[in-house]
Design goal:
Elements: H1 2-53, H2 65-80, E1 86-87, E2 97-98, H3 104-120, H4 123-141, H5 143-154, H6 156-167, H7 170-176, H8 184-204, H9 218-231, H10 233-250, H11 257-276, H12 282-303, H13 320-342, H14 348-365, H15 368-375, H16 395-402, H17 404-426
Antiparallel strand pairs: 1-2
Amino acid sequence: MSSSWFGKLTGEKEKHSSKLRWMERNWDTIVCLIGIFIIALTIRAYFAYDIATKFGTPYLLGGGSDSHYNARIINYILQNKEHLGTDPLRGYPLPGKPNVRPPLYQWSIVLGGHLLAPFVGNLDKGVQLSFILSSGFWGALTIFPVYLIGKETFGKKAGIAGAFLLAISAGHLERGVITNTNHDALSLFLVVTAFFFFMRSLEELSGDRKWVSNWAKLNKIKKGLSEFFGSNKRALLYAAMTGMAIGTVALTWKGYAYAVVIILVYFLIQLIIDKFREQDSLGITVAIFIMMMIAFLVILPWYGRNGILTKLNIFQGSLGRYYQIPLVIFLGAFGVGVYFTVTRDLPWVLSYSILAIAGVLFFTLGPNVIQSAAGQYFIENKLYSTIAEAQAPQFSRLVLAGGIVTFFLSWAGIGLAIWHVMGEWDR
């Protein structure tokens, strides 16, 4: 018993010593990140705070109609202890229409208000402060996942540089300043966090092994899948975390499909590269399936509350199209992934020919599917042209959003990265 107690005590001392050594190695990075966070929060809050609070509560809002509608939802939550479902003011004097704004942003404001209330005197003032400070807080907090992505990709110095550039970026400041009480800053924080988890999932996937030796034999499939799941637990855990992050984005912003499509575009490009290199695509296909299915299951209770699963026209309804269209896009990409995985050993010319024929048949039999799906998000239409935020920026605005030098250095960095990738490919 004494030896067991001594061993436990020794283990705790070693763990404590390991933490101290980690702090000694990384104290400078921690100080830098805290300093960058303070700088980011200060420049987002300093100039607007006095103006916003000058006349007392309710504080002044600077985010346009979106901010005031968010305030309406938050006030409803405080008064009724539930989310605003059907809003009688939407369509007035006709019967009210559903409030289609995802609930996470507004409820995070209420939670923040409860946390601040003991320090500011009352819940009303706490919620008001939580509301006007939210964009600045989440905007400043985004430097941390940016640092992690930069660190994992290029090293600590690059991560710190990326975090600092984001902190002072004009484009990010525009949507992350306090009083701009909208979901933009929170959504971007969650999207960047999801991309970090996705990157870590890819890094943890085991190498170039062909897990299933023969897709025509059931016993080989069972053995290969069992070995894959046993050897890639950490990678699949990161995939699940990616799915949770994407689901959180979707509960904050209906436009989460852009994040989904970015990941799926990378997925399809990787499938093409793997096919040319004769590598197994099972790992990334399973990871994509796990992350996307978790995301769509997490958001189903909200997006499915109007019966989207029972409507024949999947592109109609106040919320249905925001769920079903990304789901259809994911299922299509996943189907391509499964196809490339099971046809791994076929010549790429034959695989691509079969896929091309199937694609032609699909779009010939259902030509409106791609137009209907893409028209909701990615193809300009008359409704799209009326939304100011959806318009493409002028080139000068695009350059100045991150800074002239930063903009052109980023293109130089992309060229350098391509050069390194080509060198690795040759080796």
